[in-house]
Amino acid sequence: MIEGKFYGCEDLKIGIVLSRFNSQVTERLLKGALDCLKRHGISNIDIVKVPGSMEIGFVLKRLINKDYDALIALGAIIRGETYHFDVVANEISKAVMQLNLEGKVPISFGILTTDTLEQAINRSGAKSGNKGFEAAMVAIEMAQLKRQLI
């Protein structure tokens, strides 16, 4: 069976693209992701901050051609009173999936799409764990899996 491992990953290079919008949530996601990576001995980490979730795709597309083993997209899209939530959530999801299909580097999707700020806080380290930590776990596993598939 071929699957990604969570050991022997100290030499991985990870890139994180972080949205500043809803920073009270996204900074908590980042903290969780960094905690996970450091627990696994990964110290070669670059962080690129962008204004909002729609801008994440632009940076991911540029980083995918660099020498990263995996990339992590972190953001928080919280439903408001307008259609904007649906547009942003749908488009960034499509962009990350398209880059995953076309690129040579796996991208972990750590972008929250919630109805309320409370839900986002719960998923960024309160009641429901930290989705940033989980996204980093996915990045490690996929980076290790990628090595086996080459």
Automatic annotation (TrEMBL):
Q: Which reaction does it catalyse?
A: (2S)-2-hydroxy-3-oxobutyl phosphate + 5-amino-6-(D-ribitylamino)uracil = 6,7-dimethyl-8-(1-D-ribityl)lumazine + phosphate + 2 H2O + H(+)
Which molecular function term from Gene Ontology is one that the record holds?
6,7-dimethyl-8-ribityllumazine synthase activity
Q: Return the EC number.
A: 2.5.1.78
Where, by residue number, does 5-amino-6-(D-ribitylamino)uracil bind?
21, 53-55, 76-78, 109
Q: SUPFAM superfamilies in the record, alphabetically?
A: Lumazine synthase
Catalytic EC class? transferase
Signal sequence interval, chain numbering: none
Residues binding (2S)-2-hydroxy-3-oxobutyl phosphate are 81-82, 123
Superkingdom of source:
Bacteria
Family to which the UniProt record says this protein belongs: Belongs to the DMRL synthase family.
What is this protein for, i.e. what is its function?
Answer: Catalyzes the formation of 6,7-dimethyl-8-ribityllumazine by condensation of 5-amino-6-(D-ribitylamino)uracil with 3,4-dihydroxy-2-butanone 4-phosphate. This is the penultimate step in the biosynthesis of riboflavin.
User: Under what name is this protein listed?
Assistant: 6,7-dimethyl-8-ribityllumazine synthase
